Amino acid sequence: MACLQEILRITSPSHAWPHLNDDVELLTRHYGAQMTGPCLEFDETVYGTLPTGHPVRLLQLNRFVTAGLTPSGEMNGYQPVFRKEIKAATNIDIKGTRLYTESSAKHELRSVIDAASNLALDIRTSQYFKDGNHRTSLLALVLFLAEHRVLLTSSFFVYRAYTILSARFHPGNESNTLDAAAQADARRRIIRYLRRRTVPGVADIEYLLMLAETVRQLPIIVSHIEEVGARLREEWDHRSEIWGAMNWAQKVTVKWTFPELNKGRAKMR
């Protein structure tokens, strides 16, 4: 089954953005050919006894969240500028079938969160892959924490973490490039967010699959919110009607994404 239809099928009816008749067109507009490839099984794509930050593991995560394609239909993978650097690292014989390598060393919760945040921001900022860097960084964050026996609580929202790592709120964000100030701000915010939403624990397969699928479903939320943002800017005089038609969950995600539309006298409530 094409990944687009699969994502729509597995998303629950309680999703913040209900499915519309034009979901296929909407997602294809934003993600192109990437959404037409077959969905990859998590435990068949992410395998081998590798630490989360290993180039092969990151490539596996990227393939999973993007169906191995770019929006233009190319085979996804590392950007050409990084291929030479990671070539030696990828020339390995992967052994084992575990979904992550559990660290035997004991680390303080705070140090694990700091390291996980650094890894996620490095992927998002360096843009190692042709496409899907944000989703790859989020899945790497989940696996790194699990590798070091740290679990995310039910108050953790993948989309909220996405908006923080994206640093859309910071003036130092130019498309996919973050200046030093934006990187520092995003790091501070994601660490603060995670410290309130993590506990020590051992991840099971159901936990990992649930979060992996949630990360893969991000295109649904992102596509809808981009459309709402465009409407709000184009039809600002009618913002009250647009805002009033949203449910509480939708309003929260829009505020997370476009804080600049929620300031001053024109603040949306």
| Domains, number | 1
Which CATH architecture would you pick?
Orthogonal Bundle
Count of DSSP E strands? Answer: 4
Describe the main β-sheet briefly.
2 strands, antiparallel
Protein name: Fido domain-containing protein
InterPro entries: Type_II_TA_Toxin
Task: Using brief descriptors, characterize the structure shown.
single chain; 269 residues; mainly alpha; Fic-like fold; two-stranded antiparallel ribbon; globular
How would you describe the overall organization of this protein?
- The chain is mainly alpha-helical and 269 residues long.
- It has one domain (3-218): Fic-like fold, CATH 1.10.3290.
- Helices cover 55% and strands 4% of the residues.
- The chain is built from 13 helices and 4 strands.
- The chain has helices spanning 3-10, 23-31, 42-45, 55-66, 80-90, 109-126, 133-147, 158-166, 180-195, 205-216, 218-234, 239-244, 248-257, and strands spanning 150-152, 173-174, 177-178, 198-200.
- The strands form 2 sheets. It has a two-stranded antiparallel ribbon with strand order 1-4. The chain has a two-stranded antiparallel sheet with strand order 2-3.
- A hairpin with a 2-residue loop joins strand 2 and strand 3 (177-178).
- Helix 8 runs antiparallel to helix 9 (180-195).
- The chain is globular.
- The mean pLDDT is 83.
- InterPro entries: Type_II_TA_Toxin.
- This is Fido domain-containing protein.
